[in-house]
Amino acid sequence: MSLLQVVGLGKSYDTETKVLENVNFDIEAGEFVSIIGPSGAGKSTLLRCINRMVTISEGNVLFDGANVGTLGKKQLRRLRTNIGMVFQHYNLVPRLTVIENVLHGRFGYKTTLQGFLGRFTEQEKKRAFYLLQKLGIEEHAYKRCDQLSGGQQQRVGIARALIQDPKLVLCDEPIASLDPNASKVIMDHLKSITSELGITCMVNLHQVEVAQQYSDRIIGLNQGKVVFDGSNHQLTDDRINRIYGTQTRELITV
Ligand SMILES: Nc1ncnc2c1ncn2[C@@H]1O[C@H](COP(=O)(O)OP(=O)(O)OP(=O)(O)O)[C@@H](O)[C@H]1O
Q1: For 26-35, 59-68, 202-211, 235-244, which range has the lowest pLDDT when averaged over its residues?
Q2: Which fold has domain 4-243?
Q3: Within the chain, where are the H helices?
Q4: Which of 124, 159, 175, 224 keeps 20 to 30 A from 206, CA to CA?
């Protein structure tokens, strides 16, 4: 069974507009998939339906056998420990240290009191340092996050997602606020560390060439519909133009 199955997914925030319409795809464990498409196509909404940060209006999202749309509170908490998230604006607590921010990724496993008191095991702290070292920012562990560059902050965001021990990481435009050099560092780390740890990765991207360079597979969205689903080799210039076109609502055959 695929790790993630999206079946007939539809999403509306209001009664008039369908932001996602009949979206269907499966993601296998270990895949590195990019989602591309014009602004407003529904890329962020798609990721948010997968971990139910927004409610699902139609269809089903099945993650590791669980029907995401119908999970109760406790099961939803478990789902969110299995799905890490990396954000465009990092979503760190700026006045806390790097290591504290990383350890926040363990909150899903704690009781409220443990979380409040900041109780973490030696093993969790070791794991946090290991991830920071892998991401090349171990030396900044005790600095406040607001003293780091954007690229370094995003690496903290990645470490925080990975310390959850997730099966899937959803990255919502992780390099949109970074310059090309920092973007390359982030994409290199994301690719290598998820592949090494066997974690499946879905990345929303605005930069088509970055999607082509790093992904096994690319899904193109336009006006809430999947219009392309294929390998980076199949993503020709003509198909790119159609994904970003104003008339494209039908599947582009590959
Ligand atoms: N919370 C919300 N309430 C109402 N409408 C929303 C909400 N979030 C997104 N939308 C609308 O849904 C549509 C898709 O937005 P979404 O952010 O998913 O697209 P996107 O492809 O990620 O865009 P971008 O690349 O610009 O980030 C847009 O028309 C947006 O205005």
Answers
A1: 235-244
A2: Rossmann fold (3.40.50)
A3: 43-50, 73-82, 98-103, 112-117, 122-134, 150-162, 180-197, 208-214, 237-243
A4: 159
Domain spans in the chain, listed from the N-terminal domain onward: 4-243
13 Cβ closer than 6 Å to some ligand 1 atom: yes
Rounded Cα distance between 130 and 118, Å, is 19
* 220 C-beta closer than 6 A to ligand 1: no
Q: How far is the CA of 236 from the centre of ligand 1 (A)?
A: 26
Ligand 1 center–CA 213 separation, angstroms: 26
Under DSSP, the state recorded for 97 is B
Strand partners, 85: 170
pLDDT band at 248 (very low <50, low <70, confident <90, very high): low
49 lines ligand 1 (CB under 6 A): no
Residues 124-140: what's their mean pLDDT? 96
- Report the alpha-carbon angle 109-48-84, nearest 5: 35
Question: Which residue's structure tokens are 């090309």?
Answer: 180
Give yes or no for a contact between 248 and 227, defined as CB atoms under 8 angstroms apart: yes
pTM score of the predicted model: 0.94
Run of H or E residues at 63? strand 58-63
Token pair, residue 121, equals 């095991």
Query: What phi and psi, each to the nearest 5 degrees, are found at residue 73?
Result: -55, -45
Q: Is the CB of 43 under 6 A from ligand 1?
A: yes
User: Which tens digits make up the pLDDT trace of 193-212?
Assistant: 999 999 999 999 999 999 99
Residue nearest to atom 17 of ligand 1 (CA): 44
Return the residue matching tokens 């008191």: 117
Q: What is the pLDDT of residues 84-103, one digit of tens each?
A: 999 999 999 999 999 999 99
